[in-house]
Amino acid sequence: MAILDKAKESLTGGCLCGAVRYVLDFPPGSSWPPDSHICQCTQCRKHTGSLMPPLITVKPSQVRWANESDNGKPPAALTEFSSSKGVYRSFCSSCGCSFTWRSEATPDEIEILIGSIDEKWLIGDRTEKVSSESLTEPGNFEKVLNAKEGALGREICTPMAGQMFMRNAIKGATDMRLGGKRFVEVSQKKLEIPD
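Now predict its structure.
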């Protein structure tokens, strides 16, 4: 099975130290590519240290913690905290890697931070080995970029479900259109910024 086909069945991810690993399952009938968006709310920025953290939305049943203990619970290093009433964010208590956002208001959804998905799915497997210095030669960077097999980064990361909390956009840095609709806050409020 090709790496691209395998990815459409499942993606893997985890933290820096390896204490938390997960598998995202995409059974027949599930959304592919998964709904992705960017959030510029203050809490997402603080949780991730990123101005524009990208997330994908999946059903909680699609998430399998790959290093679960025998009792079926997530690994001990996976810590969840309440960032506001009824809203929870998770991270690895060993290395600090951020993983999820979920809300009691939408129990059939969980947001996964795309940066925690394994590199092989985001940038693909390198089929050509080159030195860093050679990437500075004209045309080499594009050649290497195109030689990666299985890269799903563009498919997964383009925020087709929208860009949230554009009211927090930073002029000249995070105010660009990356894909999907742009919303003043969250898409559920339907406060869309016109083109």
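The CA atoms of residues 21 and 56 lie 17 Å apart.
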